[in-house]
Write a structure and sequence with these properties.
Blueprint: H1 3-24, H2 29-74, E1 82-86, E2 89-93, H3 95-143
Antiparallel strand pairs: 1-2
Helix pairs in contact: 2-3
Amino acid sequence: MSPAASTCCKLPRRRGALVRLKMAAPVDLELKKAFSELQVKMIDTQQKVKLADLQIDQLSRVHKHTKLTQAEISTLPSNTRLYEGVGRMFILQSKEEIDGLLTDKQKTVDDKIKELEQKKVYLERSVKEAEDNIREMLLSRRAH
């Protein structure tokens, strides 16, 4: 066999191999779209989770500050004059009223923290469900 004939025989095989490779890796638009949607959802959810974490941290500091203030006020005698800051002025309040305001503030902060934690759990669960759906889609594509 001449060298030209052997090259001639090899070229069609290579082309055939290339054609098979192209056919074996078709672009599945539905899967690509699902991945891009998941990526957008994951980024959005991660930002929301970070925001919720920041809010929880800030509310925890407020709760701690309120608790410390309440502890300090409880050590004062009952006839001590206490003032509540309202804007740029201070209003004379009784010890019981200030204590009640601080207790209400603590309850409000606790409720907000619980709400944010529930929101975080929901967001993380929704991302996990989206990931599971895409895994199922991949498995069903492989089965076919």
